[in-house]
Amino acid sequence: MGDPTPPRPKRRGPLVAVLAVLAAVVLGGAGVLWLLSGREEAATPVAGSAAPPVTVDPVRPGPGGPAPTTPAPASSSDPRFVAVGQCVRNDGPAGGRPRLLIAECGSGTYEVLRRFDGETSGERDAEAKCGQVAGYSDWFFYDSELDSLDFVLCLRKR
Question: N or C end of the chain: smaller count of CB under 10 Å?
Fold first, then answer.
């Protein structure tokens, strides 16, 4: 009898190519969803107060004016990056939809006393969460389509 013929090696090229294309599609779709979920237009920020509403006169940075703080990881005044102990100011129209920006602490700003990250259901949820925080005067919540980006800020007027 002769030498048996060695078995042909299995070709995995097509399987690897299909898996690579599938991985690219999944990662690309996840990236698009992440980018779209981070847009402010998809969110509903709302602020409220335990006391009667107060008109906030926004302080606009300019020459000689206060400069925004630089939160990690990027140089931004976006309230999504605010930490406890930092301050925000309302740059929205009086009586209108609030637009918070991180700012140096001073007169007319709001100090962040507590931050609750994760899903929020709106005003009642923000009031309930901040009700546990001593000394808060106002609250702000950010409700996006992606619950992991939601947060509530418990604020004290300075």
Answer: N
Answer with the residue of higher pLDDT: 155 or 18: 155
Give the tens place of pLDDT for each residue, 45-95: 555 554 433 333 333 334 444 444 444 444 478 888 999 999 999 998 888
Burial of 150 by CB count in 10 Å (0-12 exposed, 13-18 middle, 19+ buried)? buried
Q: Measured between alpha carbons, how far is residue 75 from residues 21, 65, 111, 117, 151 in Å?
A: 36, 18, 19, 21, 20
> Mind listing the pLDDT tens digit for each residue in 16-29?
777 777 676 666 66
Nearest to 114 by CA among 151, 67, 77: 151
Locate tokens 């740059």: which residue? 91
Q: How far from the centroid of its chain's Cα atoms is residue 32's Cα?
A: 17
What are the angstrom distances between the C-alpha of 58 and each of 9, 112, 139?
A: 72, 17, 17
Within 13 Å of residue 126, how many CA atoms lie on the same side as its CB? Answer: 23
